[in-house]
Amino acid sequence: MKFALLLVILFMADGYMQTSSPRSEPSEDEPRRQITIYNTYGYLDGNEWVIPTRVWVNKKRRWMQGFVTWMLDLTSDYSDEQINIFRSRLRDIVADSKSRRTVTFRLPGDPDEHIFRVMDSKGEFPRTDRNGLILGELRIPVDLVNRIFEENNRTDGWIELEATSGRYVGSNHIQLIPPEGLSVISDIDDTVKITEIPAGGRIVVRNTFFKEYSAAPIMADMYAQWEDAAFHYVSGSPWQLFNPLGDFLFGEKAGFPVGSLHMKSARKNPLTISSWRDLLEFITNENLTFEQKIDQISTIFEHFPDRQFIMVGDSGERDPEVYGTIRERYPDQVKRIYIRDVINDRELNPDRLAGMEIIPAPTIYRPGQITEEDILDEYSYSE
Can you give the residue ranges of every domain in the chain? Predict the structure, then answer.
């Protein structure tokens, strides 16, 4: 109910300008004008590397972070720690997306300083849309990449992209994946990160917005064994959580291999209830996630028809059905499927996991099976 009350407050706040917050202020060290280059990959197409690209031009609205957390503080009994975690998760949700911006890209180390732009499916070079986004692909000559690698003694297959749009800047490292080899498709929630989706919306909200992320036990060690693999993380979480998820997954605390991220698009206006409903629904709606994952994973398989794939998910949503569908479509490419069983399907519904390798995990109970208080106090991954 507390989170629902916050949604009402946000809806009524449209037109509000700026306020102070009794909690700690957002870091002034963080750049306000940014271009986010989302984690992606490159694949070979003839004499070019093709990089599926999603970029977001935005300006941080620190006053909005302060306002939202201040209002939450007035209407709830959340602790200082929970409020500050919530503030950090708001960073991209409440940011100001900048439309009609031209974004150019360059490769550090390129002696000729070539300029590139994202090309869309129509062969045009778009500016940012009303959500501050540009979607499309970058095409970079193989010869140019080889030259940069040679002149900079790079052998790891990663290149750096720098993006510029006036005073807005950003960068990221992109893995150029060869046509043959091993790739890993991984879910995120309840596969590598504890979210407890089967336990219901209240617990999902707590674990997503008010609690430090926790890594699923043993999974990072398991992924580390696939030393030469490329990794693709396909999640039902919205793109607005890209930065906190990426910082957690690929940081020292969780230690998962860096890879591309594939997430869901949600409405971005923080002053409407519908946007906040999207954020929760996109994490918990199994049907939306099913179609999204099928499409995104199929695209990866189509880009790498000669690679072998391992797929890792959990039983709490529809990962077994998603991966089973992918195996039917690409039987020669799917090497193995692992399912982290968080709802005890290995005993209750073993046919669902047939032909898949089971990773046993503590059971997350669904609402109605046991009281929500018992889930919070005894059966969840809470501290």
Answer: 2-176, 181-379
Residue 201 CB contacts under 8 Å (≥ 6 apart), including other chains: 280, 284
DSSP-derived 3-state class of residue 300 = helix
Can you say how many angstroms the Cα of residue 36 is from the centroid of all Cα atoms in its chain? 13
Distance between CA atoms of 49 and 140, rounded to whole angstroms? 5
Contacts of 250 (CB under 8 A, 6+ apart): 256, 257, 258
Would you place residue 77 in the very low, low, confident or very high pLDDT band (cuts 50, 70, 90)? Answer: confident
pLDDT category of residue 343 using cuts at 50, 70 and 90:
very high
For 181-379, the fitting CATH number among 3.50.50.60, 3.40.50.1820, 3.30.70.1110, 3.40.50.1000 is 3.40.50.1000
Chain centre to alpha carbon of residue 314: 17
**pLDDT in the model for residue 367:** 77
In the predicted structure, residue 155 carries a pLDDT above the cut 50: yes
